[in-house]
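#struct-help
A.M.: can someone run this one for me? Single chain, 171 residues.
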Amino acid sequence: MQRSQTLVAVGTLAVAGLLAAGARDISSEAGYAGIGPNFVPWVVAGALALCGLWLLWEALTGGFRHMEEDEANAPVIEGDGKPSWIGFAAVSAGILLNAALITTLGFVLSCALCFVLATRGYRASQGHPDLRPATLLRDLLVGLAISAPVYWLFTKLLAINLPGLTASGWI
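D.P.: on it. Structure tokens below:
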């Protein structure tokens, strides 16, 4: 049994429990499609609990299997052995700007901006800061492709009000 792996599993189960406790406090009143706003949080809490149970089973029966020590599992550090502060700053800026601008730009655009900054940060932390306009545009389009359906799911299907850019409710 690997103690650190067991702690990861228990931590995952604890987060699932916190999400379930939070979902319990959300109204279950049915929305547009007959499901309430607490549906997605319950699904996420359940999926996370299943992952936590699987991790616990793995940890208690010999440790996470087939875990190789390679570059993919190594901590991300810059060449001088220090953490990637540029990557950390970019991801943090994305999260903070999303929170600050969501009511101004709307959910879709602020989340797309967060995605662009997060990808900048992750690429910088890997030592591949790609600032070409084509890459930035691609990341923006991917961010829009992710955030727009999420916005529509919440506003149109679940009847949860998220800040939009226009009064039409579609962006």
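A.M.: thanks! The chain is about 65% helix and 0% strand.
D.P.: also worth noting: Helices lie at 3-24, 39-60, 85-105, 107-125, 133-157.
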